[in-house]
Known about the structure:
This protein is mostly helical. It is 76% helix and 0% strand. It contains six helices and no strands. Helix 1 (10-36) packs antiparallel against helix 3 (54-87), helix 1 packs antiparallel against helix 6 and helix 2 packs across helix 3 (54-87). The radius of gyration is 18 Å and the shape is elongated.
Amino acid sequence: MTTLKQRPGNRTALTTMYVGAGLTAVATLFPFIDRATTTVMADHIRAGYPAYEPGAIDAAVAAYLVILATVGGLGLLGWLGTIWAVRADKRWASWSAIGLLAIAVTFALVALTVRDSSGDVGLAPLLGWLQVLPCVAGLVAVPLLWRRTG
């Protein structure tokens, strides 16, 4: 059996995956920071629905926070699980990484493009683009994992 240190690309792949986990944490925490500071999400909802009362805007922001926190938590579990699988030299780690990347890219595309009843994208563009950042790390890590198993 080949050890972790002997496989080419392992350190780079693992480093990239740790960066991806960090970017996922940032993309997950930023909406909560935004709610307390810049209010990008609330302003986006207010612009799309000017008749909404403050309570309705707060409810919409809270719903987005639940969605983004859930997806972010699942994404972080995906990163950590894949990191564990690579470190444990599991043969399925590369396949798992591809599946998780496909899910992440799909979610990011949905976050960037799905329009709500106002005609605008539902999620504020800044928050949608934050969902893309972990995908970039995944797009770097997956080929490194396949090179590692080759």
